[in-house]
Specification:
Elements (H helix, E strand, L loop, with lengths): L1 H10 L7 H70 L3 H16 L5 H13 L4 H17 L4 H14 L7 H15 L3 H11 L2
Helix pairs in contact: 2-3, 2-4, 4-5, 4-6, 5-6, 5-7, 6-8
Length: 202
């Protein structure tokens, strides 16, 4: 009986009868609370690290996408210059000088260098020489900006009118002023004016 009593007391933490077991039980609860508090702190630290890792990953994705887009634009710009040279038979020196001129036009307008090279390509395809295309593109950019239309559309109507009325590249600024005024007065878009001129020319 004494041995059994001793063993039963040991279950409570080795204390004797009375308050010893209760004290041991309180110590166990305190250790459990301490463990849970530490676990909660560790969990919060882990969540904080995950949050910052997630932010860093998102920032890296933005940098990667921006870099990829920049490389893509550079490649398209270079290809655009090659297209212009092939169509207008411009010299390598002329294309080299055009590179910085086009970038300057882009900085002063809402159009990217790639969009401007595409506009120059359309001008060349319409039969304009390299020098004529470089002259007309300024007025075309202004027209597209003022009429709030694409550079492609502005280029199409510009080349259509120059050809229909046998005008020179040097007349492009006057054409641009007339088109902007006509669009403002008639409330027609550049696309609408282009369609009207096409029908008038038939």
């Amino acid at each position: 009986a004494k041995q059994l009593t001793k063993e039963f007391n040991n279950i409570g933490g080795g204390g004797g009868p009375g308050g010893g077991g209760a004290a041991a039980g309180g110590g166990a609860r305190n250790r459990l609370l301490s463990f849970m508090t530490g676990l909660n702190t560790t969990f919060k630290e882990l969540l904080g690290r995950i949050f910052f890792i997630n932010l860093a990953w998102k920032a890296w994705n933005v940098v990667l996408q921006t870099t990829t887009e920049s490389f893509r634009n550079i490649i398209q710009f270079d290809q655009g210059l090659k297209n212009i040279q092939a169509i207008t038979t411009a010299t390598t020196q002329e294309i080299s000088g055009a590179r910085e001129l086009i970038r300057g036009m882009s900085r002063e307008s809402i159009f990217s260098p790639t969009e401007i090279t595409k506009g120059l390509t359309l001008l060349g395809q319409a039969g304009l020489s390299f020098k004529e295309s470089m002259s007309v593109i300024h007025s075309t950019i202004t027209l597209a900006t003022a009429a709030m239309t694409s550079l492609d559309e502005a280029t199409n109507i510009m080349t259509s009118i120059l050809a229909a009325f046998n005008l020179e590249a040097s007349d492009s600024e006057r054409v641009m002023n007339i088109l902007v005024a006509a669009a403002n007065k008639s409330k027609l878009s550049i696309e609408g004016l282009n369609i009207a001129f096409n029908f008038a020319g038939e």
